[in-house]
Amino acid sequence: MLRNWKGILVLAIPSLVSFASMTMTGTINLIIVGQLGALIIAIVGVSNIIMYNAFALFSGIGHTVNYLVAQNNGSGDMRKGIQRTYIALYMCIAFAFVIALVGWVGAGDILRWTGGSKELVDTGSFYLELRFYGMAFGIINFAFHGFLRGIGATKMSMVVSLITNVPIILLTYTLTFGEWGFPEIGLTGAGIAVIFGEGMQTLICAFIFFVLLNKKYQTRSRIAFSLSWLETKLISIESGKLGIQEFSLSLSMYIFTAFVARLSDKALAANEVALSIMSFGFMPAFAFGSTATILVGQYVGKGTPLLGRRAGTDTAILGSIFLIVLGTVELIFASEITHLYTNDKEVYELAAYLIKISAYLQLFDGLLNFFAGGLRGIGDTTFLLRVSFVVSWFIFVPLAYVFIFVLHWGSMGAWLALYTFLTIFGIAVMVRFYRTDWTAVRLKEAAH
Fold first, then answer.
1. Which of 234, 264, 404, 414 is the most exposed place for a label (fewest CB within 10 A)?
2. 367, 292 in Cβ contact below 8 A?
3. What mean pLDDT comes out for the span 295-304?
4. Burial level of 312, CB count in 10 A (0-12/13-18/19+)?
């Protein structure tokens, strides 16, 4: 068992560092531009929510590449894995143009639709437009990272993330305040920094894929360039299911945040602080979930799905231990941690209270990610789509509304709704994982 755990950590820790670096980059950038005033913070916050939903909608392509390549790598048929990656990249490039066009034409309208003031729309439209351009590169990068994780190269994926996130922070500071001889262009500078970082990441990923990995995987072979309608159909369907699943979750979280915003500004601030801190629990959940996808997919490709089931179980156990330790730290030091974010006593005390009641409940979010990762590894994407839709729109959103506006439980009610949702979702996915007939699991193939 310890040998299995070592193999899991070798894959999970680089993914954890990669996700952590992205989260820290966003946090540091918000702190930097936050010096420009409350309006700028609001613009960046709203833009982040919009980008989160845009990314979720197209993230299914990267998730699909991840699990299909993992299966092909396990089966020794990387020729098909490379072909599938090319098809996914073609799709990403096409969608990248669509995303860029939406940003160019409709950034202002999108900000207006969110209910922002005229000042917010006028000040933030160009920044949001730049963020859309950065997202166009981002979905291509996610597909590349899906390939790297599929072949088990999580360290390489980590290095790419670290290399590109540091310049984003430095350039944000430099262009926002005009340091070292550069022009002072405020919020626009932060948007340009994101485009630069994402674009640089695309170039690095392309170099790794087409040059460094060519000798081992023949990534520039003629067969790789060939299109297959059946494979394109498979990837489109799988990407659509996983993308809609993620978008359903992101949109329900957006509505949840809108509900909390109606309580009071301080309740919203406490909610955002608590979510920011709890994101340090979300990161290991994502990392171990990604690891489960890799390991389960590879064992399915090797024709030994029962070993994949064992690997998924070991990943869940190890990830749960990690979350229990983290939850204990959050429980003990909740007040001290929240005080770092704000000096407003009402805000940091409420945020600390929310963290204390959810310190161990985040284990269910872990179960959701661990076992959903395992189900992606076997290609059980239809179930993930259905259960995500049901629990998001028939449990989470209605409960949040009832607890907040009918029972008047305030912030406590909001978080009870959130973790009731995560608990039901996590248990449902775990039950599905273990009720699956693993002896019947087969490699995912395009339907003829």
1. 264
2. no
3. 90
4. buried
Residue count (the chain): 448
DSSP state letter for 406: I
Residue 228 backbone phi and psi in degrees, to 5: -130, 125
b/e 355-386 (16+ beta carbons within 10 angstroms → b): bbebbbbbbbbbbbbbbbbbbbbbbbbebbbe
Give the pair of three-digit tokens for residue 259.
């509900």
d(CA 351, CA 391): 25
Other beta carbons within 10 angstroms of residue 227's beta carbon come to 10
* DSSP 8-state class, residue 436: S
Check if the beta carbon of residue 36 is closer than 8 Å to that of residue 187. yes
**Better-scored residue on pLDDT, 21 or 161:** 161
Cα gap 433→380, rounded to integer Å = 9
Q: What pTM was computed for the model?
A: 0.85
Nearest of 141, 150, 191, 183 to residue 33 by alpha carbon: 191
- d(CA 289, CA 310) in angstroms, rounded, equals 14
